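re the bet — no i am not wrong, look at it urself. input seq straight from the record:
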Amino acid sequence: MRTFSIAAVLSTVVLAGLAFAPSAGALSGCGYASGYSVRVNAQTSCGFARNVARAFSQGRYRPRVYSPATGRYYTMNCRGSYRSAYCTGANRAFVSLQR
């Protein structure tokens, strides 16, 4: 039997093509944008998350995205693939994208 450290397992887990980040907390659905099902944590607005999805769908893994809730732009860092990704950014923002 193989053993793994908790730190290695919790850093990022990818199972069956779905990406999860342990710091995301509970996620809420925000509908769909650019073909992605969009989910967010409590610190992230749905309007912002849909803008992140649009940017990611254009191949941008480090997009600078507008937030309609604050009227400001924020840089997000995205990881994953075309089918399943997550993006994190300032103020503990978290966006999950699934096709």
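see?? Residues 49 and 95 are 6 Å apart (CA to CA). told u. also Strands lie at 13-15, 18-20, 28-33, 36-40, 64-67, 72-80, 84-89, 93-98. so pay up
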